[in-house]
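Q: Convert this sequence to structure tokens.
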Amino acid sequence: MPQNEPAVQAAPPGRNDLIGSARRFVLIFSAVFVVAFAGIVSYLYVQHSEFANAMRQNVIFEGTQLRAEYLTLRNRMAEVLAGMPERERDDVQVAYDILLARVQALEEGRSAELYTHDHELAPLFRGLASEIRRWEPQVLRFVSGDDHTGYVLLRQLASAGAEFGAFTARANSITQGRIGDTDRRMQTLYLLLLALLLGGAAVVAVVARLLLRQATATDAAHRHLTALARDLEAARRQAEAANRAKSSFLASMSHELRTPLNAVIGFADIMHQGLFGPLDNARYAEYVASIQQSGQHLLSLINDILDMSRIEAGRVELNEDRIDIAGLVADCLDLVDVQARSKGVALQAEPGQADAALWADERALRQMLLNLTANGVKFTPTGGSVTVRHGVAADGWYEITVHDTGIGMAEAEVARVFEPFARGGSQLVRQQYDGTGLGLPITRRLVELHGGRIQLTSELGKGTIARLRFPPERISRVSDFGAMLGAAPND
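A:
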């Protein structure tokens, strides 16, 4: 390998690097999974503790407060009736108002559904609430100075103590029951999380195994691709060397082949014309004609191969000029006219646009037209026709179309005929029509050098249409050319 040529491919990472990366990924994934699991469990534990405390503080506190306000009212009435000087009847009114407000708060507070729908607590609460509201007229009369009503109310308050105790006990029981239910649900949730942890651990283990296996397989694939790249590089170098050898061989053989062929063709032509006297035997004349035709055919094949070799090597340079397409088409038809007449094929050109010319390499364009028209005549039977049209198409491109009514090709064969040495048609057709299969590939390469393209449309038994298309920037108007000459300064 030359010193200044870069390497084909950098060395792939080693097996240890790939496996180490897989292990690091597994460890990081496992750590993140464990931390996330621990965070979820801690959060649920804190929420459970806060819920339990809130339940205890809420329901138990509310039940206890109701009983406490009831006892306060009962004590205030007893103290007033006992004649304690620091107590006044208005204190009884205030205590009753606080107890009544506590009942309303329970009916409208956060736990109202519990006090109104629980099958055991709701009847107790409704009974207490109704009884407390029935005490209001008696409280008012007592506050107004009716001691007899006060003693009656005090006995009612004393008899209601058992109901308040039952209410408080039931509230505590409900609170403990709800906390127990929550504990059971939390335990179930903890078990699910534990199962999730075990499942996640199993998944991590499987993923780790798959990653390590994939790392090993990737390492093997890298090694295989590296070896394959080396083999491909060696094959590429061999192919390039073979291509250079082929080009060198063709270049060196060009003179060696053409010179004796031209001599053979020339001498055969002299003998055929009898310039130095007639041949004594008629068979000699036939043999000489056959030698001349074979030499011409062989020289044509050699020229095609050399042209294709130069195009593939990129040694074709375009010598562009303004080309009169109508005149060039006429010249090409004159060259193939003898072949067309001998086969009985009508050869014609339709008038094109008189104002349009084309910037192109005349020799290349002539070779393209000759290839297409010669193919049209070759594959068109007696009585058929080959027509050449040219002009600017609707999309602004310049088109030269060669339309024959020959044997045509199947759709699957159209793309294949542009491959070097490939020929369309069946084996019988290929035997009947000779050729190297380089005419269309050379034509495509030449039109592509002009920035154009060739389009081939064919139908078996109905003929072929070949279109040479050149981009709009290669179109030259005669009027523009004349104006340019008119604008040029005189010498």
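The first strand starts at residue 320 and ends at 323.
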